[in-house]
Amino acid sequence: MRVVILPDSQSVSIRAADIFCFVVEQYPDAVLGLATGGTPIGTYQELIRRNQTGQIRFAEATTFNLDEYVGLARTHPQSYWSFMHNNLFSHIDIATDRCYLPSGESDDIQEECHRYEELIEQSGGIDLQILGIGSDGHIGFNEPGSSLASRTRIKALTQRTRQDNARFFGSIDDVPQLAITMGVGTILEAELIVLLATGESKAEAVKNFIEGPVTSMVPASALQMHPNVIALLDAGAATLLQRRDYYNEVEQIQSALEGNHFL
Length: 263
Ligand code: PGA
Description:
Layout: E1 2-6, H1 9-26, E2 31-34, H2 41-52, E3 62-65, E4 67-69, H3 80-87, E5 99-100, H4 109-122, E6 128-131, E7 153-156, H5 159-169, E8 178-181, H6 184-188, E9 192-197, H7 203-211, E10 229-234, H8 244-257
Parallel strand pairs: 1-10, 2-3, 2-6, 3-5, 6-9, 9-10
Antiparallel strand pairs: 4-8, 7-8
Helix pairs in contact: 1-2
The structure holds 2-phosphoglycolic acid.
């Protein structure tokens, strides 16, 4: 895993946008795995800016989101469908009929999960998956205890996650209890995974997933089993890492080798 510690959240957004540009420039029809939450918003803003100034085109790209709440209409302001349209899709030149999210309104959730897995497979798999991390170590909505081989399915959210997300809803009681999420196994099939973490509230989860054991109690720790993961952290999220100096040294050597490039 490549651990990149940057001074602040803005630098994390810019570096993540650089990676998107690198992938989409090479593969204009790239399949992009997208995430919701507070963390990727800065990256999406940077991508919108670059798209509007002609530095990146999304016209041929396909996207798959990690997850969606069950029981919210997609037009609900807090659905992830709304989040993605408001924060990215409506502002860029992407074909929205190739922007996929699981449907939390389906009558047959199991069938919907199966359909979503098939769509990912038919698209040729995800080239670049962006992830946030929950303060409990979740990725997507794979809460602690999730099978590390899991596929897209329905999950019950922990109280901690519902509390963390209450800020978007006004009250914890309004946060749905269930979501459809790509599984850990689904996520691990992406070609390249970039996990973003900012702020001290993520420091413990970051320490556990990078330097702790691989365990379903910290679903993000499964990323240790993937050959191509970049963790982009700001100083706050990196606070509890034991081997910070080593990661910084490696990064210096690596960027010198790459002429300041990131891959
Ligand atoms: P956040 O959520 O970006 O809003 O902190 C991250 C996550 O739950 O994966």
